[in-house]
């Protein structure tokens, strides 16, 4: 964190110069918006989170995208497709193993870190203990089921050892996700930015060199090692934030908070369960089609650009969730304003990123190597679907903050069934069919969610505030 202190000192020294430069470069109407933002404590709280979140993560996301292009050229279409299905399988098992603990830590730390630090410390301990247990169980389940999955579901028995080796990646991803969720609950976005920056700088050469030296196995081991680096940095940052925030990290009394698992984490996990495994099943449908793994390679390449488009909306959601969770317990009107701000920011950021990529899609896909260029239509459909997904992610944050998790489960079931049904109907279109099936499902869910929130109106926010107030009384 020495770099953080140096950055702070530089900013303090040159604040006046930077302000004059901004006044000279910014149009007058933007200066008016900036002045209003400075006058709003809520707006500045949100803006600080956005600045620090984007500062370190832009470079790490860019490095991840560049490494995916290099890895695709080294592995070829089929090899890159195999890496994609391994990552998808790890993600599916991680959904169950994660048990929604990262989001649980974010919400309840944001709500209690100031008014009840002891309770906040117990929630951190609860999340850590349960995540280590569920991560271990998930890793064992992946090792044991890998032979059957590789042979009967993925039509690739030779992937069995790689799936088993990826159990380490699964374990580290789950426990690291919980730590990152806790950091978000502290609104420690500056720490998260530096963790992402350092781990991105280290992971890039690891992945490229591992793939170049050992092919697909080297890529799997490099991803595992990079996740281990991220976990170590996040662990150190979490302990630092807890000390500075006066939240005691102790194992004493963590079981007192176990009711959170059933009231919040369980329906959240079930909601996610309807999404990630559904995506995995759609990928399994694809790889079982003629030339399926080559098509999976095209889809995997397109999904890298989805991650780029979702980058800013995802970070906006991470920033908005702890603020919404805090406000939902005491100020429904402010929660509504933050939600609208988040929707506007996420939608605008996704559109600004997606539209140029659609125009450049033929050249972007050709960069992955021979045979990828024909998939530029897949990339366009993926990007159109990503615009709807960015909006749905923000609405999901509102459901979480208001503790309407069982309602969210109903919508997740609808989306999952719609995705599977549409993908099966479009399966003969291969990678384009998977992308199209997701688009149909997200449009349907978006329409239903907007109708739901519109019908409830302010009751949506007030009910969340009343539930939070009754818990603390």
Helix-strand layout with pairing:
Layout: H1 2-13, H2 15-25, H3 28-38, H4 41-98, H5 101-112, H6 117-153, H7 160-165, H8 167-185, H9 189-245, H10 259-273, H11 276-287, H12 292-309, H13 311-328, H14 332-359, H15 361-366, H16 376-401, H17 405-425, H18 431-456, H19 459-472
Which labels suit this protein?
473 residues; mainly alpha; 0% strand
Average residue pLDDT: 77
| Rg | 22 Å
Secondary-structure element order, as H and E? Answer: HHHHHHHHHHHHHHHHHHH
Q: What is the 3D shape? A: globular
**What quaternary form is this?**
single chain
Extract low-pLDDT stretches: 25-34, 468-473
- For the termini, the CA-CA separation is 39 Å
Beta-strand level of the residues, as a percent range?
Answer: under 5%
Q: Helix/strand-derived class?
A: mainly alpha
List the domain count as a whole number.
Answer: 1
**What is the makeup of the main sheet?**
none
**Count of DSSP-assigned helices:** 19
State the gist of this model.
The protein is mostly helical and 473 residues long. It is built from 19 helices and no strands.
Report on this structure.
The chain has 473 residues and is an all-alpha fold. The two termini are 39 Å apart. Helices cover 86% and strands 0% of the residues. The longest helix is centred in the first third of the chain and has 58 residues, at 41-98. The chain has helices spanning 2-13, 15-25, 28-38, 41-98, 101-112, 117-153, 160-165, 167-185, 189-245, 259-273, 276-287, 292-309, 311-328, 332-359, 361-366, 376-401, 405-425, 431-456, 459-472. 52% of the residues are buried.
């Amino acid at each position: 964190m020495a770099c953080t202190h140096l950055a702070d000192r530089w900013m303090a020294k040159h604040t006046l110069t930077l302000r004059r430069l901004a006044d000279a470069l910014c149009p007058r109407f933007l200066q008016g918006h900036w002045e209003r933002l400075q006058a709003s404590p809520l707006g500045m709280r949100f803006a600080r989170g956005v600045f620090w979140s984007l500062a370190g993560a832009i470079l790490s996301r860019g490095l991840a995208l560049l490494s995916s292009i290099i890895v695709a050229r080294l592995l070829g279409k089929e090899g890159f497709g195999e890496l994609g299905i391994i990552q998808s399988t790890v993600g599916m098992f991680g959904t169950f193993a994660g048990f929604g603990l990262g989001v649980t830590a974010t919400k309840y730390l944001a709500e209690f870190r100031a008014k009840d630090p002891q309770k906040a410390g117990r929630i951190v301990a609860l999340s850590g203990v349960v995540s280590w247990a569920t991560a271990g169980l998930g890793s064992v389940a992946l090792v044991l089921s890998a032979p059957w999955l590789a042979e009967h579901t993925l039509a690739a028995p030779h992937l069995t050892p790689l799936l088993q080796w990826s159990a380490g990646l699964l374990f580290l991803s789950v426990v690291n996700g919980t730590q990152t969720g806790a950091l978000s609950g502290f609104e420690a976005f500056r720490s998260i930015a530096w963790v992402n920056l350092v781990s991105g700088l280290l992971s890039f050469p690891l992945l490229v060199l591992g793939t170049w030296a050992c092919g697909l196995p080297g890529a799997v081991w490099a991803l595992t090692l990079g996740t281990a680096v991220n976990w170590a940095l996040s662990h150190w940052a979490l302990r630092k934030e807890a000390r500075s925030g006066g939240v005691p990290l102790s194992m004493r009394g963590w079981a007192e908070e176990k009711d959170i698992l059933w009231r919040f984490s369980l329906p959240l996990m079930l909601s996610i369960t309807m999404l990630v495994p559904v995506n995995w099943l759609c990928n399994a449908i694809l790889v079982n089609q003629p030339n399926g793994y080559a098509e999976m390679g095209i889809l995997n390449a397109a999904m890298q650009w989805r991650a780029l488009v979702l980058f800013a909306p995802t970070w906006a959601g991470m920033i908005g969730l702890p603020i919404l969770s805090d406000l939902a317990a005491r100020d429904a009107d402010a929660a509504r304003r933050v939600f609208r701000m988040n929707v506007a920011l996420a939608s605008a950021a996704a559109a600004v990123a997606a539209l140029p990529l659609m125009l450049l899609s033929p050249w972007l896909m050709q960069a992955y190597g021979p045979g990828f260029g024909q998939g530029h239509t897949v990339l366009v459909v993926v990007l159109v679907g990503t615009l709807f997904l960015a909006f749905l992610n923000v609405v999901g944050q509102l459901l979480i903050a208001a503790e309407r998790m069982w309602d969210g489960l109903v919508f997740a079931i609808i989306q999952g069934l719609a995705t599977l049904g549409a993908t099966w109907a479009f399966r003969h279109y291969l990678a384009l069919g998977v992308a199209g099936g997701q688009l149909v499902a997200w449009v349907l869910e978006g329409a239903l969610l907007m109708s739901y929130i519109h019908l409830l109106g302010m009751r949506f926010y007030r009910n969340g505030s009343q539930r939070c107030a009754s818990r603390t009384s």
